[in-house]
Amino acid sequence: MAESHPHRRIKTKTDQTDTSKTQAGSKVDGGSPSPKPFALAIPALVLLASLVVYSVSHWFPLRSLQNLLYFRDETYLKGVRPNSVPVFTADEARRDAVVEAFKHAWLAYERDAMGDDEYHPISQKGTNLTAAGGIGYTVIDSIDAMLIMGLDDEYERARAWIRDKLSFDRNASFSTFETTIRVMGGLLSTYYLSGGDTLFLEKAQQIADRLLPAFDTPSGLPLPMVNLHLLEGVPDRDTGDFVSTAEASTLQLEFRYLAYLTDEDIYWDKVEKVMVVLKAATLPHGLAPIFIDIETGIYGLSPIRLGSRGDSYYEYLLKQYLQTNQTEDIYRQMYDEAMTGIHMYLAQRSVPGNLLNTAELIPDRAKNGKTGWRLLPKQDHLVCFLGGSLMLGATTSGAVVDHVSVPPLPNELSPQGKRDWFTGVELIKTCLATHNTQTKLPPEIAYFRLRSQKDKNSGKKLPPDWYIKGSPPGKPPPLDARYILRPETVESLFIAFRLTGDTWYRDQGWAIFQAIEKHCRIPTGGYASIKNVDQVPVEHEDKMETFMMSETLKYLYLLFSDASVLPLSEYVFNTEAHPLPIFSPIADSSSLL
Ligand code: DMJ
Q1: Best exposed site among 44, 117, 239, 426 by fewest CB in 10 Å?
Q2: What's the pLDDT tens digit per position in 507-539?
Q3: What is the largest CA-CA distance in the chain?
């Protein structure tokens, strides 16, 4: 098992003449309150058996028949608009409006809270994640966007802060996952985009070294928190002996790229070991419950979902495959299996509008007393990354030619590629349908009325296909009704646009941008979350999440930029939208093989 490091000392994809296939494109945090894992981990076998039973009895025949339909001949790929002429040039007016919005956000933060981890635009102040002091969360998460958008002055000031003020020596616990994706990801991306400014690589290595103790566990799975001063992994009080699947499996792009840059095996080996454990624990069809036991490496009896605590597991399967230029077939296999599992168990259609959505599987007692799975028709906004991701996977993992056209032609994709492309397109449409609210912004969580379930909501005055649970008029809005400036729909729109050149995706992104401007923009500077997407005038929550600048505005900027800016064939975006270059290994000795 893991001994070598074939993946480094090589060339980035841009250096190569072989540009085999086209490729790129991003999720853990708190959509819904996450249930605690049950105290006892159960053997994977029990889960496996119950999923198989579930499959046979509920889905398999119908799904197989549906899959066969994708084999038929087509002139246009299902999900591609016939006769649309692809556009590759910038939409300058819209792009510049996004840059103005970014400055509105950044300049307010810089004025009121420079260096603090988080920003509160209404009270015009900053706070840190812990009382021990900040770790540059907002500055580092935002700085690569400044380079990308050509905001040179802002970039120089942010760089000076990182050079002079940043310290990671904080005696408090920080999230392993969040620190990796935002801080390490931001530093590594800026290192590359700045043409190799060593300040960023040094800082990335410093934070990586402080995060490494998280992996010192019996299984090799990381503890969810790390004390950055004591250099000790720390369990999460809420999840005890467990770490969420997404948190454990969304560190790989960052640590692997650092290993590639520094030639230090340890970074690669620690995160690959995590994948070895996850692979061994995987359920049939690649689906993963959202909690895994850190000591044993066995999944806990916990929900299977594509939203919070599950999402970026699936995202990083594809992206690990893309990061090393499609050379690590093991990740392609794991990704393909997982996508098939999603189609078999989670993909649903709603009534009456036939919207494709993804449900959750909740472990429960069946009538015979055994463990079974109950379908919960709930979709976090976080799942909206998956539309673009499926399309990207279709043109890479699902391609049967080296160069896929824009938009792809039917004969360029495998049956699975066609299936995933179409599902991706459909899922984006569903996510856009959840923007059909008073504010045109999506809720944190939507429930769907499924074809396959009895209609329990008939007669209620609710949106036909989906609704926000616990949101009766006159009552305080539930947390599900919030919009916290999340990027997932625009992330998918960006990828879809790059892969199709279809300006319809740009128009959808522009409508979302306008809704953000109308309802979230604070006149004195910055943007704030809103408490209820279905209420106008809106009520604000005094917080601007760091992903507003690092993801939402960056993806919007890229959506309106010309196609040569950060092409998906050369970059893979980490789950926090930090672009990292694709590179190629010289040998194949993955420990997963
Ligand atoms: C981001 O921090 C990342 O995309 C993460 O993977 C999921 N949640 C947020 C954005 O919604």
Answers
A1: 44
A2: 999 999 999 999 999 999 999 999 999 999 999
A3: 67
Q: How many CB atoms lie within 10 A of CB 132?
A: 17
**SS3 state of residue 116:** coil
Q: Which residues, 6 or more positions from 111, have their beta carbon under 8 angstroms from its beta carbon?
A: 124, 525
Residue 591 above 80 pLDDT? no
**Ligand 1, atom nearest to 486 Cα:** 11
Amino acid at 392: L
Q: How many residues does the chain have?
A: 593
User: Where do the DSSP E strands lie in 206-332?
Assistant: 225-227, 232-234, 242-244, 291-293
pLDDT at 464: 81
Q: What is the pTM of this model?
A: 0.89
Phi-psi map region of 432: left, alpha, beta (phi>0 left; psi -120 to 50 alpha): alpha
Q: How far is CA 201 from CA 90, 264, 373, in A?
A: 31, 13, 46
377 CB near ligand 1 (under 6 Å)? no
> What's phi and psi for 475, nearest 5 deg?
-90, 155
End-to-end CA distance of the chain: 8
The answer to whether residues 423 and 343 touch, using CB atoms and an 8 Å cutoff, is yes
Residue 454 CA to ligand 1 center (angstroms) comes to 33
Residue type at position 478: P
Residue 246 near residue 302 (C-beta atoms within 8 A):
no
Calculate how far, in angstroms, residue 488's C-alpha sits from the geometric centre of ligand 1.
8
